Amino acid sequence: MSENAISLGFGGGCHWCTEAVFQSLRGVSDVKQGFILSDPPDDSWSEAVEVTFDPQEIPLEALVSIHLATHASQADHKMRGKYRSAIYSSDAEQRRDIESKIYDLSRRTGGAFVTRALMLRGFKRSDERFHDYYRTNPDRPFCQTYIDPKLAKLRAGFAQYLETSDTRTDA
Known about the structure:
six-stranded mixed sheet, 5 helices, 21% strand
């Protein structure tokens, strides 16, 4: 990883699912599963991951595209309190860049995304027994039902960003 590594938060669905998606990507050096909060009115804890990546290996635009494609980024459903659809940054300039990328993707794809760019104001790890959930439990029904389809979307639309050493994503 270069000294230019960046950390962002990604939330939108179950943090087990989001963790598995980002762990599958090249250029991502660390994925921490947990709960995240932002400024009011988004100051309640919501499931998310904190991702550290090298933008020279995987660009921010690719991460934004992948995130929008692998959760219900166009659905404002009743579980949005627990599963807030957002990308969290630590500074205002980065937040504006993320907002711009979401807007550009919306214009190019015709998608009406509910995903927002928010400030990262807090992060706490989930219980350690749930870390690396997909990697340690790939045959569990939850993984097969919810995570495998997300990884299939990665293979179909973003294969160039997959980590080649991750054998589960090659299936």
